[in-house]
Design a protein that fits this description.
Chain lengths: 372, 315
């Protein structure tokens, strides 16, 4: 679809009821141009510099256990944010896709399981893992796009749990309860990529790549059409867009992101077991995405940081066994009191601050647009 | 669908079923019949739990993903009531009442404030289910709680043809499921409150305008739906066992049952439960490794041809 077509599509409707108090049309044109121009701001540079310098002042524990884990988990949750925030489809099977990638890397590559792994070179295993996981994600998408809203959640949950039972009960390929142990990244260029700092940079590279990819993709005609479908599938269908194809494609794209995250997370853990694709983790990914906020690709990474910090330090606050209670309560508070996770609070806060400083209304409007 | 297609699909489904049944009976009739009964009694439990789920969804479009937690809660309370009083019927009542009260509290304090916000309700109930599951584990522990059946249902029924003997308790689940199903159907289709509920499904605002206290109707339905989960919990505490993780299992079973059968339909839930229960039990008996995959294949097939379930209708 051409740019003119989607612009017409976007102008035809008023997607959100909140937009009724939007500024005058002339202003709106200004706002829209502004949002698309010059996306790099001071805060982006500061955050990037901080991320790059981080391992030089953080302890290996903070580099590996906290930051690298948060980046890998954030990448998996990013795939859900893309699907949910921009496609309007909440899939609980994203961890399943990630798990499939992890399992494939272990099965085609090397793991400490006799007779199961094929021992092919790591790059081939990773490539196959990504391809197979993406195909699986496309298949899951093809199954679940026939349904909407709640049905999607339930069907993807059912698919995810079915995969969990499959790997739990199958010993010939997936090695049952034990799963695949000792799945490590390769030694490449004299660097062992599982050491804290190299792994951090590896995770950071792919997390940034995923982030920028999503930021770019949601502004392409495909991304805009997807958001149109999220807001009103019937109108988009009437405009000649193939709604089903766009949705399945969104699942495939999200599958690639989740697969990369899955390979990283498997390498991080050094293993992939049925436990890592169980209901618990399916829901954890949803928690991470919702905790951060689903309207911007930075959300899942924020959510992942909070999640990992809670996971590691809830022990100090109360009993280690009660982690689920803490994360469950935090999740409840966020979904009960914020419309869009931590990002929602951030947007509300910055909107309030900017009005207090006497900023013009269009600045607040830009905030709204940007947050979307 | 034309007549010819209907005949074609009936044949596609019926021929393999008939062939497999004939093979199963010829190969080992006892195993086949016992598996059939086990499947139906498991289906009865699934139906009781899932009918509560589908009732709540059918009327209020509230997706209560904490339904499994209510099942677990009812089961534990039933277990302790039975231990304390020695009465199984009292345990059933306690399980029903506890789950109904918690469900009522959820409806009044949470769902009433977010009508129509499906996704938010889902998130909140997911959060609730995590919290409830962890509190239950904290209070009761992770060990297995197995309840014994009441004395008058204990032991086997003897002198049956083909299978010789079968557990009385398990067998009694079949009439229980049927009674609950028929009662629910009569309640929804033949009583005044049931009429209000069905009217509320179609047009909530009009029902309120007709002078019905819609909030009260909603609260009642939610309590009954949640109570059915608790009732199922007490039954399941004998038939299966109570242990953390069962909540997810029963939630998943309810989901599959209502997806296959069609949301908001009691008859659909019965059909879905029968298919799912039989598929799971036959899978476990004849191909233990891949029993779950069978269930999954059924789910996929139903969705591919009837995206809203066998008896589902557009929302």
């Amino acid at each position: 679809m051409s740019a003119a077509n989607w612009r017409r599509a976007m102008n035809l409707q008023n997607p959100r009821p909140a937009a009724t108090n939007s500024p005058a049309p002339a202003r709106e044109a200004r706002v829209r141009r502004f949002a698309f121009e010059n996306p790099v701001r001071a805060r982006h540079v500061i955050v990037l510099a901080f991320l790059l310098a981080y391992p030089w002042f953080a302890t290996p524990f903070f580099t590996y256990q906290i930051a690298a884990q948060a980046l890998a988990l954030g990448l998996i949750a990013l795939s859900l944010t893309f699907l949910g925030g921009y496609g309007g489809m909440i899939s609980l099977a994203q961890m399943t896709v990630a798990g499939i990638a992890g399992y494939m890397v272990a099965i085609f590559g090397t793991a400490a399981t006799d007779g199961v792994t094929l021992g092919w070179p790591w790059w081939l295993a990773v490539l196959l893992g990504l391809v197979i996981a993406t195909l699986a994600a496309t298949f899951i998408g093809w199954l679940s796009v026939r349904t909407e809203g709640i049905y999607t959640i339930m069907i993807t949950l059912a698919i995810g749990v079915a995969f969990y039972y499959l790997v739990l009960q199958n010993y010939t390929v997936f090695n049952g309860f034990q799963g695949e142990q000792k799945v490590f990244p390769p030694v490449l260029g004299g660097v062992y990529w599982r050491d804290a700092t190299p792994f951090y940079y590896l995770a950071l590279f792919w997390a940034l790549a995923g982030y920028l990819f999503v930021v770019y993709l949601v502004r392409t005609p495909f991304g805009i059409a997807l958001q149109g479908i999220r807001d009103n599938p019937r109108r988009m269908h009437a405009l000649g867009f193939n709604v089903t194809a766009h949705r399945v494609a969104a699942y495939a794209v999200a599958g690639v992101i989740a697969a990369v995250g899955g390979v990283l997370f498997t390498w991080y853990n050094g293993l992939v077991t049925p436990g890592s694709v169980g209901t618990h983790w399916l829901i954890n990914i949803l928690i991470i995405a919702v905790l951060g906020g689903m309207r911007h690709p930075v959300g899942p990474f924020l959510g992942a940081i909070v999640f990992v910090l809670l996971q590691n330090f809830a022990i100090d606050v109360i009993d280690r066994e009660r982690f689920n209670l803490v994360i469950g309560l935090v999740f409840l508070v966020i979904v009960l009191f914020s419309r869009d996770g931590l990002l929602g609070w951030w947007t509300a806060l910055s909107a309030r601050l900017s009005t207090q400083r006497g900023a013009t209304t269009w600045k607040a409007a830009r905030g709204r647009l940007y947050a979307r | 669908m034309t007549r010819a297609w209907k005949v074609f699909w009936t044949l596609v489904i019926a021929v393999p079923v008939v062939v497999l049944t004939a093979w199963g009976l010829q190969d080992n009739a006892r195993l086949f019949v016992v598996t059939f009964l086990n499947g139906l009694t498991l289906a009865s439990l699934y139906f009781i739990v899932a009918s509560g789920f589908t009732l709540v969804f059918g009327l209020m479009r509230n997706v209560n993903l904490a339904h499994g937690s209510l099942y677990l809660l009812g089961g534990y309370l039933g277990f302790f009531t039975a231990q304390f009083s020695g009465s199984w019927l009292l345990a059933l009542a306690a399980g029903f009442a506890a789950a109904a009260l918690v469900g009522l509290a959820m409806q009044v304090s949470i769902f009433r404030f977010m009508p129509g916000q499906d996704l938010r309700q889902t998130m909140v109930t997911i959060g609730l289910s995590i919290v409830i599951a962890d509190i239950l584990m904290w209070a009761i522990g992770a060990q297995v709680h197995q309840m014994s059946p009441p004395p008058w249902l204990d032991g086997p029924i003897r002198n049956l043809p083909v299978i010789r003997a079968y557990s009385t308790y398990r067998f009694s689940l079949l009439p229980l499921g049927i009674v609950i199903g028929v009662a629910l159907w009569l309640f929804l289709n033949r009583t005044r409150v049931g009429m209000m509920i069905r009217a509320g499904v179609d047009d909530r605002a009009m029902l309120a305008a007709a002078g019905v206290n819609v909030n009260l109707v909603f609260a009642t339905t939610f309590a009954i739906g949640a109570g059915l989960a608790g009732l199922g919990g007490v039954i399941g505490a004998v038939e299966l066992s109570m242990v953390p993780g069962e909540d997810t299992r029963l939630l998943l079973a309810s989901l599959i049952v209502v997806i296959v059968g069609g949301m908001g339909s009691v008859v659909g839930a019965a059909i879905g439960a029968a298919i799912f229960g039989l598929a799971e039990t036959y899978g476990l008996a004849y191909a233990p490794t891949y029993s779950v995959v069978f269930t999954f294949v059924i789910l996929v097939l139903v969705l591919a041809f009837r995206p809203r379930g066998i008896l589902g209708r557009p929302a």
